[in-house]
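S1.2 Input.
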Amino acid sequence: MNKKLLCAALLAGLGMAGVASAQTYDDRWYVSGSVGINVQDQDRHTEDSPFATLGFGRFLTPNWSLDAEVNYQNPDKQGAESGLWWSQYGISADARYHFRNVDSKWWPYVRMGLGLQRHEEEFIRDPAFGAPEGGYPAQHEDNNLAANLGAGLQFDFGRVDLRTEIGTRVDFDE
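S1.3 Output.
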């Protein structure tokens, strides 16, 4: 009877040791931020503008991470006398698949996500749009679904990681 109890205790201990050693990645929450250039599509007739994001996330497995981010950019209408004030901001949930081994110090990844993008436009004067009903200023505000796609490299510097990324946000705004 004692041999059976001893064997059962050893097997249970080995099973717990396997579970404890199976997680060999850092699954703590992290804060992320980014800055870059938002290249506007030509249909909007706006200039490229700087953007900023702030987010938080965590690794779900050694290769998958999930981030929630807020973003902001303020593109100008092409031409200094356009009189259009335009702000864009939004929130998204983005998954990244990291092509790495646990011991890697740098690795490539791909990014995909969905979010909500908000546009706030105020037309002070713009001959291209004609005079709005009621005169100037005219305002337009709208929310749109947005899809994020990208690819990049992540570098591990110990307590701090650095990402460099190129990507696109497809905004379903008319």
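S1.4 Remarks. The longest strand covers residues 138-156.
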